[in-house]
Amino acid sequence: MGASLNEIKTKIASTKKTSQITGAMQMVSAAKLQKAESHAKAFQTYAEKVRKITTDLVSSDNEPAKNPMMIKREVKKTGYLVITSDRGLVGSYNSNILKSVISNIRKRHTNESEYTILALGGTGADFFKARNVKVSYVLRGLSDQPTFEEVRAIVTEAVEEYQAEEFDELYVCYNHHVNSLVSEARMEKMLPISFDEKGDEKASLVTFELEPDRETILNQLLPQYAESMIYGSIVDAKTAEHAAGMTAMRTATDNAHSVINDLTIQYNRARQASITQEITEIVAGASAL
Amino acid sequence: MSENVMTLQVITPAGVVYDHHANYITARTTNGEIGILPNMISTITGLEIDELKVSRPDDETHVDYIAVNGGIIEIKDSLVTIVADSAERNRDIDVSRAERAKIRAEKALEVAKAEKKSDEIKRVEVALHRALNRLNVSSHN
After folding, report:
1. Which of B:23-82 have CB within 8 Å of A?
2. pLDDT, tens digit, for every residue of A106-142?
């Protein structure tokens, strides 16, 4: 019974206030998560359509791809687009993704000149800067429901750097949202664009009338395709961020409640002890008379 | 459903903007204006920043206008799909926002021209074109 009654009382009050704040933050995150989920759903239809048109266009072509965005170059330098959050209080969300990126980079590269990093979100940018890793592009302050316009800057930057042969392949590293409790770190190859992995999709037998010609359309469509894929991962990552925030805040609130319970028991015991002591003193005083 | 009807879907990253039957569509592609009728040959082509005119089978006199910011149009089995960065129906356009975008683009264009940055000029011109297109489409109300 080290602490005095008053000390325990203030502790209980302050923990209660903290739990109210974390409780409110949990609800805010929950609301944002719901919004982000519906946003991701709307985007899914777009991504599917772009993919379908691109496969329609590419599959009817028997010649090897000539477009620079589809040609596999010899890999001299790899770009990593790392998506993290801007603020903390999201549990293990950031450390998960950064850990997986670092271990992957260590496995694949021996030399620092073999890779470059594009950071989306302040936590990731600061993390790499603190470790003296070269970050070629930073985008901070993304809103909670990023619009296509907002992320266009970093997406276009990535696509342009690829086209300028700054790097020869691009991976996007982000947390994939599975459900509100689970997310998994993912590393996806975005560029060069390949359709090999979707071998189960039947090549359409319809021949298309192409105007003006295939190359021109591909030049317009492929950047749009790449942009939509990258934007898709950003939306996915944001959804995971809100889910992580919600879970972290729920855990914090639960912890606060258990701390308050313990403290209340401690407080009652201390009070009981002081009462007992008082009675003993009175009884002892009375019997001494 | 009668034979001479096609479906038009306009899809953007923000979701499906337009999903209706249509019996005639006019669009401006990179190669010039085209009219699309049901059962047309399968086509894929790029679109300009311009308006899309759609006449629907349920009302002969009514025409829907949609502002499209570029994108790709695919026509296949009487299903017309347009994927674009952004697109708005005339009734959904926020006129005051479009006005502001136009003024902003005009100012930026002057600055860019004064500084003679050709990339910047091109980009601002596209932005201005988009704003003008939105205003133009919204005037069809």
Report:
1. 29-31, 41-46, 70-72, 74, 76-77, 81
2. 888 888 788 888 888 888 888 888 888 888 888 888 8
| Domain-embedded: residue A283 | no
Give which of A233, A228, A230, A221 is closest to A70, Cα–Cα. A221
> Does the pLDDT at position A272 exceed 50?
yes
Considering only CB atoms, which chain A residues are within 8 Å of B49? none
Domain holding A125, by residue range, is: 63-245
CATH number at residue A164: 3.40.1380.10
Q: pLDDT value at position B111?
A: 86
Instruction: Tell me which residue in B9, B30, B72 faces A212 most closely, judged by beta carbons.
Output: B30
Q: Which chain B residue shows the shortest CA-CA distance from A206?
A: B42
ipTM metric: 0.74
Q: What percent of chain A shows pLDDT beyond 90?
A: 24
Is 80 exceeded by the pLDDT of residue A169? yes
Q: Tell me the count of A-B CB pairs closer than 8 A.
A: 81
In a domain, A269, yes or no: no
